[in-house]
Write a structure and sequence with these properties.
Layout (H helix, E strand, L loop, with lengths): L19 E4 L3 H12 L6 E4 L10
């Protein structure tokens, strides 16, 4: 099955909107976002992370 590419961007816009908000972009938050994006339907997912990279927990 071919899926269309997902767009990912970093923003500091305080007015950003999303359908789903995930706090923490470590392994768990990143995997949750990936699983949600595999489900049918259009949705905007916003991950809030203090670090500059996702999936890099300590």
């Amino acid at each position: 099955m071919v899926t269309r590419p997902r767009r990912c961007s970093m923003t500091q816009d305080p007015h950003q909107t999303a359908d789903i908000l995930i706090i923490g972009g470590g392994l768990s938050g990143s995997m949750l976002a990936a699983q949600l994006l595999r489900r049918p339907g259009q949705r905007r997912i916003l991950i809030i992370e203090t670090r500059s990279e996702l999936g890099r927990g300590e």
